[in-house]
Specification:
Length: 379
């Protein structure tokens, strides 16, 4: 046992090198470690060399290839120029275009116009899309339009800034505005609500909502409206009447309150009813001194007498309304037809109401303009 332990160790294995790959060491661990490292470095080296060679080959472009690429770029630029010129002409002519929707983003739709792409912001889309499901987010609705085509008009062209904007609302106005007349009533859906009023989308006989009008704060209710959102909210269904159309600005003015009976007339008749055998003249006093006038009303009446065609101003009944229509003094021309050249005005402030009778040779429109002139002069 002792002799065996003093036996010299076996000779060391010969060194391994890349030049003698056939040499193998007794130890498997030694054999599989070093050569793998060297092969990895060689691979990395060859890979870098191949990349450099490939890059060098890519940088070398034949004259024929360079000429083809230049010609292609020039053709594209020429096509862009032609299309910018064409889209400017379409805007000037007010043409309605049918363009494909290529994609949607959070702000609107991207449309293709030949070699160009343009944008339709969400506010310039037709209300027909949103009104199908007012509770659905507009971003989900626009995604469904990708792959379809919509009718639009060119809204803005700026070649220098590469800006091209389309409007579906303008195209809808061209198609449907001729069907709208003053006095027409529509069912509508309330869209955006602001401090000055609410936009209402109008439902047409085909069941779609093609146009949008504004209900001004003064036309929301007979009550005093200080915050439109106290009366209207997005998605509400309402009935409106068309009171004004501005074709030049593509605007429609709507009213909700004019479809309701004026509570003022009802209040006056209930508080100060006219006897069957009593004419309106019997209720009119002959002198402003006999009536406690609304502040500022006497000055307005004196100015009315200075208007051509107005020969007399007298005061009639007073009453208190059930609700406040305006805190400031307002003059309203009654819808009651004139009798014996006499028109009736209604002066209102707070809940107080005062009848004012004008004797005049003017027609209803003339009286209206005279009152407007006076109100413009009197602070």
């Amino acid at each position: 046992m002792l002799a065996a332990s003093l036996k010299p160790p076996p000779p060391s294995p010969p060194s391994l090198s890349a030049s003698s790959p056939s040499t193998r060491a007794p130890s498997q661990t030694t054999v599989t470690c070093l050569p793998r490292r060297r092969r990895r470095h060689r691979r990395l080296h060859l890979s870098a060399a191949a990349t450099a060679e490939s890059a060098g080959a890519g940088a070398a472009v034949s004259p024929e290839e360079a000429s083809t690429s230049t010609a292609f770029d020039e053709a594209r630029l020429a096509q862009f120029a032609v299309d910018w010129e064409a889209v400017r002409a379409d805007k000037d002519r007010g043409r309605v275009l049918r363009l494909p929707v290529v994609r949607a983003n959070t702000g609107g739709l991207i449309l293709r116009y030949n070699s160009l792409q343009g944008f339709v912001p969400n506010p310039l889309l037709s209300p027909a899309h949103w009104c199908k499901d007012p509770k659905r987010p507009i971003q989900d609705i626009t995604k469904d339009l990708v792959g379809s085509s919509i009718s639009v008009k060119v809204s803005e062209v700026n070649e220098e800034e590469k800006k091209l904007v389309f409007s579906e609302k303008d195209a809808s106005w061209s198609a449907y505005s001729s069907q709208v007349k003053i006095g027409d009533t529509y069912d509508g859906i309330v869209g955006s609500v602001f401090h000055y009023g609410a936009f209402v989308h109008l439902r047409f006989p085909d069941g779609n909502y093609h146009l949008t009008g504004l209900v001004h704060i003064s036309e929301v209710s007979w009550d005093l409206v200080q915050d439109v959102q106290d009366f209207l909210n997005e998605g509400d269904t309402v009935k409106v009447v068309v009171v004004k159309i501005d074709a030049e600005k593509s605007r429609i003015a709507l009213s909700i309150r004019q479809l309701e009976e004026d509570p003022l007339l009802e209040t006056l008749d209930k508080i100060i009813p006219l006897e069957p055998d009593l004419s309106p003249d019997a209720q009119i006093t002959s002198s402003p001194a006999e009536v406690e006038l609304l502040p500022g009303l006497e000055g307005i009446c004196n100015e009315l007498l200075q208007e051509d065609g107005i020969t007399d101003v007298r005061f009639g009944r007073q009453a208190l309304e059930k609700r406040v229509v305006s805190q400031d003094l307002e003059l309203w021309l009654s819808s009651v037809p004139a009798k014996d050249n006499q028109f009736k005005l209604l002066a209102r402030a707070g809940r107080q109401v005062q009848e004012v009778y004008l004797t005049t040779s003017l027609d209803q429109e003339g009286v209206k303009k005279a009152v407007q002139r006076v109100l413009g002069r009197v602070p």
